[in-house]
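Structure tokens please, single chain.
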Amino acid sequence: MPRSAAAFLFFVLALAGCQPGVPAPPPLPDSLRAELVTKTSDTPPSEGKSICWADDTMPAIIETVTEQVLVRPEQRNPEGELISAAVFRTETAQRIVQDRREVWFRTPCPELLTLDLTASLQRALKARGFYRGDLTGQFDAQTRRAIRQYQEPLGLDSERLSLAAARRLGVVAGEFAF
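Here you go.
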């Protein structure tokens, strides 16, 4: 492809990404967002042996945009010398990018959350730099905080361990049907 055509294509794609109303791209393959089910009732989406769910509230995502708005343009004399500098004002606006929502997500069943599994979870989180405590096997505040720090960039802002995150960390194996 000629260089100018490639540059034009890049420019068009960049502009398309700036247009309001353009749908967000699908979740990345490593995202946990695909595991979330919008909560419409107090009962989990499905039941069955070894199928456990947790619910949580995903916080709203708010974007703050700050712009410099021209109040008065610069003024120059006929020779091009600056008479007065341009004057700008700062405008700040916020908008909700994603509303707060309640969700269901699969989680390891309570009978799986043994001392050994929790210690393995702590070890896996520690190896990735999220957990800094001792490997106690206790599902304590420090462990929950590390779970949130691990899951949040993947699209699940919760201190409750999702089944998908447990699989990614290698502490739970196997496939479970919904």
